[in-house]
Design goal:
This protein is of the alpha/beta class and 263 residues long. The protein has a single domain, classed as Metal-dependent hydrolases (TIM Barrel, Alpha-Beta Barrel). Helix content is 40%, strand content 16%. It contains nine helices and eight strands. Helix 8 packs across helix 9. The longest helix has 22 residues. It starts with a strand and ends in a 5-residue tail after the last helix.
């Protein structure tokens, strides 16, 4: 029934009980899960997981916070090969992150430039592979959209964990991109995020957990799991004045259209 479009199943927080996590998700009605990678090692770990899980697909990519793990060109060649696996449904999680301090050996300007180079290479790969992209933004909105929007005629992006206004979302939606909401939308202090969830067109958004992070109410403060996407769906249904079944139908249709390899 539910579709968790962003869950980090290879995160070390799931190493000790992933089978139970997946069992709880299925018991909660989660029928499909997309697991985005953060680096090449994480991507290989996810592919090994997905090989045995028919309801899991994988996105491969280098997260901006892990951009220091790659240099030269060999990494994009490896990513290209990984993107050909049958279980791959997108390129991600990719983007820009200016919130965290630069790693050792980088000035702030050098770090921003390196992130942009890594992102652009992955956008070009996505266009080549005809895969859509899962996008990360943290305090980098203007630079991120400046790099992504020129690719709008070749690929679509989902701006995951969206926390912006409807005014920010509108230009993206008009070019075929999507936004996605996490459990933050269920928080009492969600503010503008809740308003965006209320206003976004039915064909413009998806839902996710970003597990193990950002657990929705009533699990806030705990480790997040894919099962909890059902709580996010219920919160959005309340904001939109819709039945939860309508939210599920809309977001599942959007996700099936966006991600490669689902039926």
């Amino acid at each position: 029934m539910f579709f968790d479009t962003h869950t980090h199943l290879a995160n070390k927080q799931f190493d000790h009980d992933l089978p139970a996590v997946l069992e709880r998700a299925r018991a909660a009605g989660i029928k499909r899960m997309v697991a985005p990678a953060t680096d090449l090692e994480n991507a290989r770990k996810l592919l090994a997981i997905a090989e045995h899980e028919p309801d899991v697909r994988v996105a491969v990519g280098i997260h901006p916070c892990d951009a220091d793990t790659v240099s030269g060109t060999a990494w994009i060649d490896e990513l290209r090969e990984l993107s050909k696996y049958p279980k791959i449904c997108a390129i991600g999680e990719i983007g820009l992150d200016y919130f965290h301090a630069p790693p050792e050996g980088f000035t702030l300007d050098d770090w921003k430039a390196h992130q942009a180079k890594v992102l652009t290479a992955q956008l070009e790969l996505a266009a080549e592979a005809k895969l859509n992209v899962i996008l990360h933004n943290r305090e980098s909105w203007d630079d991120l959209t400046a790099l992504v929007l020129p690719f709008s005629d070749r690929i679509r992006g989902v701006f995951h964990c969206f926390t912006g206004t409807m005014e920010q979302a509108q230009p993206l939606l008009e070019q075929g991109h999507l936004i996605s909401f996490t459990g933050i939308v269920s928080f009492k202090n969600a503010g503008v995020i809740a308003e965006t969830a209320r206003l976004v067109p039915a064909n413009g958004y998806m839902i996710e957990t970003d597990a193990p992070y950002l657990a929705p109410v009533p699990h806030r403060g705990k480790r997040c799991e894919p099962a909890y996407v059902a709580d996010t769906a219920r919160a959005i249904a309340g904001l939109r004045g819709e039945a939860v079944e309508q939210v599920v139908a809309d977001t599942t249709r959007n996700a099936l259209d966006f991600f490669r390899g689902w039926n």
